[in-house]
Amino acid sequence: MIVSDSVADKAVRQDQASQFISYILQRCNDNKGFAARLRRADNPATEYQCWELLAAFNINLEWENQRLPYTTVAAAVAKAQIGQNGSLSLGRAIAACYDDGNESNQAKAKLRRVLACDSTQELCRILRPLLTMISSKAGQSLDYSRLLQQLLKFHWDTQKIKTQWAQEFYGGIALDQAEVK
After folding, report:
1. For the chain, which terminus, N or C, has the lower number of CB atoms within 10 Å?
2. Max Cα-Cα span within the chain
3. Pairwise CA distance, residues 14 & 150, whole Å
4. Is 63 exposed, middle or buried (0-12, 13-18, 19+ CB in 10 A)?
5. What DSSP string describes 86-107?
6. What is the pLDDT of residues 34-86, one digit of tens each?
7. pTM of the model
8. Number of Cβ atoms within 10 Å of the Cβ of 40
9. Helix axes 144-154, 64-80, angle to 10 degrees
10. How far is it, in rounded angstroms, from Cα 157 to Cα 83?
11. Torsion angle of alpha carbons 165, 171, 14, 154, nearest 10°?
12. CA distance 63 to 94
């Protein structure tokens, strides 16, 4: 019984993240004012402008471990100006920003900085400029739904999420197609 509840909880979280990304993609394409408010969501001084949206998705605004992943990803989606969610994982996206891919020293430094984060707050702060760089240099769109799911799990499954990003960066197992478990 507990196992089925756990599986059901995972499905709900994944579904909510996917629905959130689909909703903001649609609204950003239809309403430029909405997109402008979301672009400011990753700034602590103007983050409140997207709280109405987060509350509509039943996101607890008092919990930074839940709120900051949503604001970080929402701002990144709004800034990327994309029509649909991409398929690139975070690790592969970092490598795709450099000509040498995962052999690039700069790419390795970016990945190491992400992997050195110990809290969701620190990770979201580090990701803001990285997501902007990925949007402009990677040539493909990130899978924002997958990234949001990973950020939401980072608080309680830190090592596993870091391992996924390292594996994605260095290759090996094709995790881009794998479901976040």
Report:
1. N
2. 50
3. 10
4. exposed
5. --B-HHHHHHHTSTTGGG-HHH
6. 999 999 998 899 999 999 999 999 999 999 999 999 999 999 999 998 989 99
7. 0.86
8. 17
9. 160
10. 31
11. -10
12. 28
